[in-house]
Automatic annotation (TrEMBL):
Protein family according to the UniProt entry: Belongs to the polygalacturonase-inhibiting protein family.
Organism: Hevea brasiliensis
Coiled coil: none
Broadest EC class assigned to this enzyme: transferase
Keywords: ATP-binding, Cell membrane, Cell wall, Glycoprotein, Leucine-rich repeat, Membrane, Nucleotide-binding, Phosphoprotein, Receptor, Repeat, Secreted, Signal, Transferase, Transmembrane, Transmembrane helix
Compartments in which it is found: Cell membrane; Secreted, Cell wall
Entry's EC annotation: 2.7.11.1
Topology versus the membrane: Single-pass type I membrane protein
Protein name per the record: non-specific serine/threonine protein kinase
Domain of life: Eukaryota
InterPro entries recorded: Leu-rich_rpt, Leu-rich_rpt_typical-subtyp, LRR_dom_sf, LRR_N_plant-typ, RLP_Defense
One GO cellular component term: plasma membrane
Lineage: Eukaryota, Viridiplantae, Streptophyta, Embryophyta, Tracheophyta
Amino acid sequence: MCLLMKSLSKLVQALLILIFLSSISSFIYSFAFVATGVSAEAKSDQPAKGRKEADSLLKWKASLDNQSQSILDSWVGSRPCNWVGVTCDTSGSITNLSLNHLGLRGTLHRFNFSAFANLLSLEISNNSLHGILPSLICNLSKIYLLDLSSNHLIGNIPSEIGSIPSSITNLGNLSILRLWGNKLSGFIPSEVGFLKSLKTLVLSSNVLSGPIPPSIGKLRELSILYLLDNKLSGSIPHELGMLSSLSEMSLQKNNLTGSIPTSIANLKNLSILYLWGNKLSGSIPSEIGFLQSLKELDLSSNALTGAIPSSIGNLRNLSILALFDNKLSGSIPHEIGLLSSLSILSLQENNLTGSIPSSITNLGIYPFSDYGVTSFLVLYLQKLGS
């Protein structure tokens, strides 16, 4: 009897071990099946994304004129990674679209921006696109480069989003925004200040009006700011002095008024400052002498008054100094002779008095003008051989 009980006990133990091993085997099989299914689903999803992107591009291509469709003759089938202007990542999803200088004619109305979840750059500059700038462009959440410059885009956009879509602020990764050379109108939306990753902002040669939004001062990464050749009005916001990374600022050919803000003294990295062709008044701030990285300074064709600040002599890297066509008075400061890098000095059409400082001759520049140079008016000075 005791022997029988021992045998039964061993049999039960064996059965339990078999059941345990069977359970583990089933679990491993189920896990492997699920994992394989997820992997297969992910892999099958990749071609699906590629087809969706391809279909979207083909629909946009079909909306362009016949010549444009011929230019994009490689755009056939469902594998866009080999198409002209298209770059994909390893999964086959489109990351870059570069269609510059192709002569494309049409609109962006049929461009399905929401289809390109992984698009990093969109460049369609120097073409003949017309119509509005769609607000749906904000769906490109990963994009860092957007260049639609030198087209015929216009500002007939619903007033609730402005002539440049205020929804563009969803583009948190955007580093470069070029929209110059179009016909965009209306105000620059204040929401542009939310584009915290922006390093280059080029909105020049449009018909933008209204003031420069002070919110631009929040763009601490901004290196290049080109707003020239528009119809901007109002004063230059002092908040621009907060752009500590700024190297080039071009605000010329607008209708800007008021004085040059003293806050520009904070722009230690600024190398180019163009404010010419506005209606700026008041004196040239002495703080301009703090811009020691400055290479080109053009304040011409404004209504600036007062004396030329002697602090300009601190700008030892300055190669171009253009102050002509203002209402500047007083004498030419001899400190200009300290500008050892200067090649062009234009002070004509002002109310300057006194003689030409001898220190200027130390720079190796000579005066010339079709009208001659008098002892009280410097018309134009240029370095020999330049």
